[in-house]
C-alpha cells in the first residue's frame, strides 16, 4: 500500500485544482517558508477524517477553505482526494486502487466519498482502521509528535501499539457490539413495561 496521488482544490493556499503524484519510495516536498509544504500534510490528515482544527493549525474547520489573497477572491469549498494503491489488499476493499475524497462548503455542508460513492466518516475510519494510516494512525508524524509519544501516558502509548498490532479494529467492533447490546436491553426493559401495563 502506498500513496499514489493527492488532489487539492480550494484547500488552504491551493485555490486551483492541482494533482501531486507520488512514486513508490521516498518523496520530499521542498520549498521556501510559507509556500504550503505543511498544508500538503494537513490535506492528507484532513482527507483521512481529521476533526481537530488545532491539529489542522486553524481555529475553525472553515479555515481549510482558501480564504483569498490580494490577487484572488476566496473560494466556496475545499476538496481533497487521496488515491492509495491497494494491490496487496491491505485496505478492506476489493478495489486495487482506493480514492478517498472529502469536501467542505462554506455553508458548513460536508461530504466524504470512497471511490466516488458517498459514505459516512465512520466508513472512512473503518477503512483505515489497523492500517496505521487513519486519522489516529501512526503514519503521519507531525512536528512535536515524537516528544508527545515519549511523554504519553501508558494507556495512550498502548493505543499506538494496539493500532500497530492490528487490535484496534477488534476493540472498536467489541465496543460497537456492546453499544448495540445495551440499546437492545433498554428496548427490552421498555417493552416489558408496556406488556405489564397492558396485562
Ligand atoms: P514553513 O517552511 O515556514 O513551515 P510551509 O511551506 O510549511 O512553511 P505552510 O504552513 O504549509 O507553509 O503554508 C502557510 C501559508 O498558507 C501561509 O501563507 C498562509 O497564509 C497560507 N494559508 C493557510 N490557510 C490558508 C487559507 N485558508 N487560505 C489561504 N491561504 C492560506
Automatic annotation (TrEMBL):
It comes from the Bacteria. ATP binds at residues 32-39. Residues 167-199 form a coiled coil. It is found in: Cytoplasm. Homodimer. Contains large globular domains required for ATP hydrolysis at each terminus and a third globular domain forming a flexible hinge near the middle of the molecule. These domains are separated by coiled-coil structures. Belongs to the SMC family. Required for chromosome condensation and partitioning. This is Chromosome partition protein Smc. It comes from Ruminococcus champanellensis (strain DSM 18848 / JCM 17042 / KCTC 15320 / 18P13). The gene is smc. The chain holds residues 1 to 199 of 1188 of the full protein.
Amino acid at each position: 500500500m502506498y500513496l499514489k496521488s493527492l488532489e487539492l482544490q480550494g484547500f488552504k493556499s491551493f485555490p486551483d485544482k492541482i494533482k501531486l503524484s507520488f512514486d513508490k519510495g521516498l518523496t520530499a516536498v521542498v520549498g521556501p517558508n510559507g509556500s504550503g509544504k505543511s498544508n500538503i500534510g494537513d490535506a492528507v490528515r484532513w482527507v483521512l477524517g481529521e476533526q481537530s482544527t488545532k491539529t489542522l493549525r486553524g481555529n475553525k474547520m472553515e479555515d481549510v477553505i482558501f480564504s483569498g489573497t490580494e490577487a484572488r477572491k476566496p473560494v466556496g469549498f475545499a476538496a481533497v482526494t487521496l488515491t492509495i494503491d491497494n494491490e496487496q489488499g491491505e485496505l478492506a476493499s476489493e478495489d486495487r486502487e482506493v480514492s478517498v475524497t472529502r469536501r467542505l462548503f462554506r455553508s458548513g455542508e460536508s461530504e466524504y466519498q470512497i471511490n466516488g460513492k458517498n459514505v459516512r466518516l465512520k466508513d472512512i475510519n473503518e477503512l483505515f482502521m489497523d492500517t496505521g494510516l487513519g486519522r489516529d494512525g501512526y503514519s503521519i508524524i507531525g512536528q512535536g509528535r515524537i516528544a508527545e509519544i515519549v511523554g504519553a501516558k501508558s494507556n495512550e502509548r498502548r493505543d499506538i501499539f494496539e493500532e500497530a498490532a492490528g487490535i484496534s479494529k477488534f476493540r472498536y467492533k467489541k465496543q460497537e457490539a456492546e453499544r448495540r447490546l445495551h440499546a437492545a436491553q433498554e428496548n427490552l426493559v421498555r417493552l416489558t413495561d408496556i406488556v405489564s401495563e397492558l396485562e
